[in-house]
Task: structure prediction
Amino acid sequence: MNRPLIAPSILSANFARMGEAVSEIDRSGADWVHIDVMDGSFVPNLTFGPKMVSDLRPYTRLPFDVHLMIQNPDSLIPAFAEAGADYITFHLEAVIHAHRSVQLIRNLGKKPGISIVPSTPVSHVEELLPYVDQILIMTVNPGFGGQSLITTCLDKIKQLVSIRKAKDLSFLIAADGGINQDTAPLVRNAGCDVLIAGSAFFSAQDKTGLVNALKGEVF
Ligand code: DX5
Ligand code: ZN
Result:
């Protein structure tokens, strides 16, 4: 059985207590901190910029997985790299020259990822698979936490698993949106490597229990 990495998203944390939220993620046994950057243009919501990333950096040694839901990501990628991002993922739909953006992230010494929204097929990203460390499949329309997982997106995870095997590649497959204890088995069974969870994590009383449940561990 696939035992995925868990990346809680601080989008669902209290923005007035963000350092504490990252410490909670650190203590929970989760693997990465998922940081949702929104510009009010690519998605109809706003969050924060590179300063939040640098201010949060001292709160944990876990990798920072920065998910850019912004137009023209190239203009801010260097600042997020400098701020302490480890993985930097941008949206295919927000750029023309995606290969150039991937190289920009790589040349800054960070791990490039590409995300696709529910209406974008896997075929649109296929040419770039040899160059990335992560493909992030949005399982909701990006912009807000607390939405329901769109189950048809799970087929895209299965397609990526099969292409990765056929081409002998090694990128991670992440899923983002609507992941909780009930839907996590579907995402794991599709072959996903990284489960991102915002509202499920921050609404859980027992965060370590939730992380273990998302990983599929039974005690
Ligand atoms: C949505 C963000 C997600 C969000 C997930 O646009 O990219 O990372 O935090 O939230 P939940 O887990 O509540 O669907
Ligand atoms: Zn996200």
In short: The longest strand covers residues 33-38. Residues 9, 11-12, 34, 36, 67, 140, 142-143, 145-147, 176-179, 196-200 surround D-xylitol-5-phosphate (ligand 1) (CB under 6 Å). Strands lie at 5-8, 33-38, 64-69, 87-91, 111-116, 134-138, 172-176, 194-197.
